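Supplementary Methods S3. Input chains for the assembly prediction are listed below.
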Amino acid sequence: MSAVEISRVSKSFNAGRADAVDALVDIDLTIEPGEVVSLIGPSGCGKSTALRLIANLLEPTRGEVLVNGKPARQARLDQDYGMAFQQAGLFDWRSVAQNIELPLELKGWDKARRRQRTLEVLELVKLPEFADHLPWQLSGGMQQRVAIARALAVHPPLLLMDEPFGALDEMTREHMQDELLRICGETSTTVVFVTHSIPEAVYLSTRVVVMSPRPGRITGTIDVDLGTGRDVETREATTFFEKVTEVREALRGIPATGSGVEAVDR
Amino acid sequence: MSGGLGRRIRRVWMFVLSLFLVALVWELYKWLGPQDGGTVFEWKLLPRANDRAMPHVWEMLSRYAEPERRGFDTPIIVVVLQGAWFSFRLALVGFAMGTLVGLGLAILMARFKVVERGLLPYLVISQTVPLIALAPLVVSWGGKLHIGEFEWPRWLSAAVLGAFLAFFPVAVGTLKGLTSTPPASLELMDSYAASWRQTLFKLRFPAAVPFMIPALRLAATASVIGVVVAEISTGLAGGVGRLIIEYAREATADPAKVYTAVFAAALLGMVMTGMVVLTDLVLMRNRPRETST
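Predicted structure tokens for the full assembly:
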């Protein structure tokens, strides 16, 4: 069973009106469990829209989205995924722990179980001593880690991330990328990751999906195999830079020669 | 938060100082202003500065110690404070009713766009109806109302009129707050498949608090105004509104008297607002505070 299966999906906004926009046209994408897939492309290429279709925050105009083998809507109702956005979006009237407990409250967990799970995920994101802090007392990177902990609280098999590190400085960003890889390794979570940053996409992913705008389409996918134990040396390795170049050229619309790039419209 | 305490003490000082300044300006005008009023470009603008129109500040203050009228023992301060207490309870009832109605309407309007479009214009129009005209109507409607054992007490009309002024800022402010929720937070709640009710209580309401506090402040003072005006126009005895109108009739003989009641009414408004400020401090204690409030 695939973690995500998008078949022949199109999404138009304001369909039938003068200001109609084809955000996505005929997208096909299958993501297997354990994969980390980045969606990359210029603004307006529909990568965030694609993520929201998987999350069932938007309904496709045509086509079908399956998550964990069920319709996306059912997957949302079952909380089969966790989501993190560019803004950590923590509720500033709730403490760190209470923020993480929010999805568990909505699921109807009792207090003791909530508290226990919250401490587990706080441990996972290495912020156990900040449980009773208030969000605004934390740095941007720490807030984002809390947001990830919140997304992971319900044990989702799938993590959807919309430029989660986009607002962070470069150093924090690289650190967070390593943390994300570690967390996903420990929890064997599948990740769909929307980003603007080519190095970020290459570093995190097992597969980079390149998209182009007007109308939003998938123009290529690039398999990345940097191994499991990625660290600072990975970022400086030649293979890393080769992949970065490959993605960059795919984004320019130049068909890259060699392995890895294939049209998705099979 | 030591800085907060220092700031609060400074604020109290500023308030005392401003009272003193107002008194000073009053006395200055009384000293320099025309005794029988003055005209600017033939418009009669400048108020009369004589003792009948503008009693000295110390006369108003010392009047508090004297009895309400000759032959009585209790100083007038006791009388006006009793009146203020009476009106305070009415204003509190009015404020509570107005807040409940305002919240209910705001929730309805936030939930159903149609209700907002249909209802909001009428709410705005309702506030243009002069309270003086409405007061006798409410009294007569209330008088005709008999629900089982329930008899409409006279004071309830005054409270209802307070509520009539109070509900509007609450409804509008809360609606604004409930519909200003950050879209990303709403998406988050959607991703949890949260129901509308869960989103309302776990997200929309807490996020609306900063919008609701100023609205509640307005409602607190509005309920006082409503009650005071209602007391005057329905002739309800016992409250500070009635005292103001009674004492104003004696202004020629005892000009300082009416001010004792006027200040009591002002104090009433301040106490009501102070209660809202306290609520604000409690509700917002965990949130980041901007330096300007």
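The interface with chain B takes residues 52, 55, 57, 76-77, 79, 81, 83, 85, 87, 89, 91-93, 95, 102-103, 105-106, 134, 136 of chain A (CB under 8 Å). Strands of chain A lie at 4-13, 21-31, 36-40, 62-67, 70-71, 81-84, 158-162, 190-195, 207-212, 217-223.
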